[in-house]
Amino acid sequence: MRKVCYRKMTSHLTEIKLTKTGFSVNVPFGAKPKMYNWDEIDNLRFSENYNEVFFKICSKQLVLKNNNTGFYEFIQNIPSTFKNFDFKYVSEFLNS
Q1: CA 80/CA 83 separation, integer angstroms
Q2: Containing domain of residue 86, as a range?
Q3: DSSP secondary-structure letter at 90?
Q4: Per-residue pLDDT of the chain in tens (96 residues, 90 and over written 9)
Q5: Please, is 75 exposed, middle or buried when counting C-beta atoms within 10 Å of its C-beta (0-12, 13-18, 19+)?
Q6: What is the Cα–Cα distance from 78 to 16, expressed in whole angstroms?
C-alpha cells in the first residue's frame, strides 16, 4: 500500500531529461538517474488516452506519465525510427 501511495504522490517529481543518445529518468529520492539510449529501446508508444508513454527495453515495459517533469520536451524529441509512436498526435497537440 505504501509503494502505491508513494508512486502516486511523487509521480510529478520524476524528471525526464534528454541526453545526446537518449534520455534519463530521475525518480524522486532515488540514488541517481537511470539512463536509456534510443537504440536500446524496442518499442515506444502512447497509452490509449495519451497520458502515458510506454517503452520496452530488454523485454521489460516501463511507463512515463504526462505529469513527469520534462514529459512534453521528451515526446517532441523522440526519433522518427519508432514507427508505433503517434507523431501526428504530438504535432497536433503542440499546435493546439
Answers
A1: 7
A2: 2-95
A3: H
A4: 545 444 555 455 789 999 999 999 998 776 789 999 999 999 999 999 999 999 999 889 999 999 999 999 999 999 999 988 999 999 999 898
A5: buried
A6: 13
The cell numbers describing 75, all together, are: 515526446
Strand, helix or coil for residue 69: strand
pTM above 0.85, yes or no: no
The domain tally of the chain equals: 1
Give one DSSP letter per residue of 1-67, joined into a string. -HHHHHHHHHGGG-EEEE-SSEEEEE-TT-SSPEEEEGGGEEEEEE-TTSSEEEEEETTEEEEEETT
